[in-house]
Every structure is written in structure tokens, then in C-alpha cells.
Amino acid sequence: MKKIVVLGLLILAFAATSYAQDVKLDFRASGFIDAITEYWENVTPASTNNATSIYNALPAQFQPFGPVGNTTFGFNFNKKNAYMESRLRLKFDAVMGKELSGTIFFEADSSRWGNLDGYRNSYGFWSGDRAALEIKNVYIDASLPYVGIPVPMQVRVGLQPLSIRNPLFVYTDGMGVKPSIKIDPLNIEGYWFKAIEGKDYSADDVDVWGLHANAKVETFTVGGYWLWYNMNSYPFNKTTTTPFTDTPYQADAWWLGGYADGKAGPVNINFDFIYDHGTVQLRDTYGSAPDVKYRGWMSYLKVDYPWDMFNFGSVLMYASGADKHDTSGSGLPGTATPWGLPSEKVTSFVVPPGSESGAIYGESLVFYSSWVNRGNTGIANTLDYNQMSRGGTGGTWMAKAYASYKATPWYKITLAGLYIGDTTKHGDTFGTAWNASRTGYEDNSTIGWEFDLWNEFQIYKNLKWTAAGGLMFAKDAFKFYDPTEDRNRKPNNPWIIVTNLTYTF
Questions:
Q1: pTM (2 decimals)?
Q2: Rounded to whole angstroms, how far apart are CA atoms 82 and 74?
Q3: What is the pLDDT of residues 317-338, one digit of tens each?
Q4: How many of the other CB atoms lie within 10 Å of CB of 366?
Q5: Which of 238, 334, 345, 494 has the most CB atoms around it within 10 Å of its CB?
Q6: CATH no. for residue 373?
């Protein structure tokens, strides 16, 4: 009811101060088409990663005793994989001057050239003519006429991005209202999104509320935000006929973050800090179990030093991990830790349900996601549409150094090296290795060393081809326990070669 009142007041504000527009319609189109080649071993597409696990999250296809390949695409332990994929994005903007516009945004994917099923994400089906086109966004942008407040005010209504510091925190699309106001130099945005609507007569829905502000302070943009997910049904895995019968939990979680982007002398600096705080509890009608408290954090610092045609940079990132003494693999109430105790807390950094930050993170080619293939691979790249997950960083820390050289106006080369560590306690974030006495997990600190190379070719102004390759030397925190041989094993060193041809318009 509160949400209907809020939207109604916005509509009344328009109606009370409406005025005629003598502006012609400007109809604009933009988007891209790409073609990507993939060739890798033990890297894994993000869709196969065990996103619901707080730890021990090596995908099953790494483990020879698991399923014989992924049920959809057939990936398996220590096997080379090769395929092609494509995406189309087409965005239409109907613009009526500075005050009003409407946006319709379409997306279509061929997850494999030669798709077998011919449905969603499958326009690569042989003979074509597939129903693969999706609606990504549909929204209205409007400037609010002044109502006694002499500052610019806007509102966006409809299916739109919820995006805040999206490589680290949250990006998802959903129905919502986003008002904004600019009081120079301060920009303020508010958020209300309807994530889940269950029974109209019952409080079983999920709402998202938030506030985001930033301002220009000398050479820096400094900002902060707060985002609250009120989840009366958790996880979100509803069914079509009887919504929420399989969601015996409810949850409240909020995130508080701050950032600074700018230039200090000759260097460019990006800094982020995010803290998550939440509680997941079992509904009374499903029995009793201790609540599970979520308390995690992450920090990120990037420094770039551009010099002539070169750029030298470094990244430090730390994201807290869970403690296996206190946390079950799922992080849900009524579940047990590996020591048989009730799960009561999750200290791993987590992102909201549905956040695609893991795919956007883009800090490497092998372990984290890669921008070259739009975040479609990456061992640590997790996305859970139904509950909180580690995103792209939880349970890991990373130190990265890189250098790029723009040799010509049309060619750029970049080299990078990463040390990747594990922050889960009494065990590993990804590995499942047992100690020698079989009384508990090994607690290793090093996941691996990774080395990457990017080559970017600007063929035309709107046509770019990128070829990249990476190799990770896997260390002890990447081992798993093989019960068929009663020993710890380690996959072959993961590697990838990927190319991307993109036409933007």
C-alpha cells in the first residue's frame, strides 16, 4: 500500500503542474552485435558454478567422481572445451526534448553457435527463426516540473537497471521507481524496486529500498549508499502454481558502501568499501532453528599511472570469507556446519540475490570474470538469482599488477599478473581437500598465480576485435577430496584463449 501511495504522489505532482510541450519526437536506436570464440580447460562458464554454496564451490565438472559432464553443455574434468557464442542488444529511445523519454531495450543470445533447444538464449539454432528475443528494460524517464523547489528533479519508472558500483556490488534489472535530485554539487538517488510479488492478499513479497548520494570534491567524486532487501520470502525460488511453498525462510539484509574516484597528482584512484549485514530466519510454521546472521565486508583499491602511450596500474582487493566452524555450505537456518553444529553466521562477503556483479567484475581471464567474453566464464564468477551469494569476490583476496601500451591508434596490448588468496577459515572457499587425519578440511591460503595477455584491435571506429589468453598456476586452496581414490587431487592448471568481434552502433 505504501508503494502505491508513493507512486500516486509522483503522478499528482505531474498533474498539478502539467504544461504543454512543443517538441518533436526524436527516435534513436543503439546497441551491439558480437561474435565470441571460447577455448579453455577447467575455467567453466559462470552458469555452471555452484553459486548457492558459501564455500567448497569448485564446480562438479572439475571432479571426476561427479556427473559425467554438465547436463546442458557437457563440460568435464581436465577436458578442453571449444565453442562460439553471440549476443545482440538493441535499444530504442523515444525522446521528447530534455524533459521526457521512453526506453525499450531488447537482448538476444546464442549461448552456442549450433544451439540444440532453440528457446531462450538460443538464436544460434540451425535454420534460425527461434523465439530468443528478450525484453531487458522498459521504462519512462521524466523531469519533474518545479513545485517550489528550484533544483532539477527526475524520476524513472518501469523495468530498469538497479545498478550501484556494479563490478563489486549490484547490477540487476527489475520493476521499480527511481527518483533523483541534483543540488549542486550533490546528486541524490532514491530506490524502490519490487523484486517479488507473491499473493496479493499476503505479505510474502520482496521489496528493495535504497539511497545513493555523491558529490564532486575537488578532483574526486565521493559517494555513499545504503540498500535494503526486505525479503518476506527467501530464497526466491517460487513456483508458478503455488508461489513460495518451497521458501520456508524470510530474510532482511542491507548493504552500506562508500567510494571515491578521482585523480591525485599524476595517478587515477578508485576506492570502494562495502559492508553487508543481514539475518535469515526460519518461519515459525516450519519449526525452530537459530537465525543465521550475515556480517561480511570487502574493500577494493585501484591505482593507474598513465604515462605517454603507457599505463601502469595495480589493484588490491580483499573480501571476507566464511568460518566453517559456524557456517553451513548453504548459509540457511536449520542446516549444519561440517562439525555438526547449527549454522549461525556467515562472515563471507555476499551480494544481493540476482546481482550480476560477478560477471561484471572483469579483473582477470581465468579465475575472475573477463570483459572479453562479457563475463560468461570465470571460476569465481557466481550468480544466484534466488539468494545471497559470493558474487565475484567473496572468500578471496587479490593483488594485481598490469601494464598496457597503445602501440598505434588501432592496437593496444596489456599484460597482467595476479596473486589470488583464500580468506575462508577452517577450510577453503573453493577447495574441498581434507587434512591427513580426515578429521577436517585443509585450510590453505593460496588459490593460485594468474598471468593474462590482451590484444585489442580497433578495425573501424565501430568495429573492434580482441584476442586474449590467460593461465592460472593452481595452488593448494584449489584442491578437492576424491572419495573414489581417498586422496586430495588438483585439476590441471586452468587456462583460456578467447576472442571477441564487436560491432557497436
A1: 0.92
A2: 11
A3: 999 999 999 999 999 999 999 8
A4: 29
A5: 494
A6: 2.40.160.100
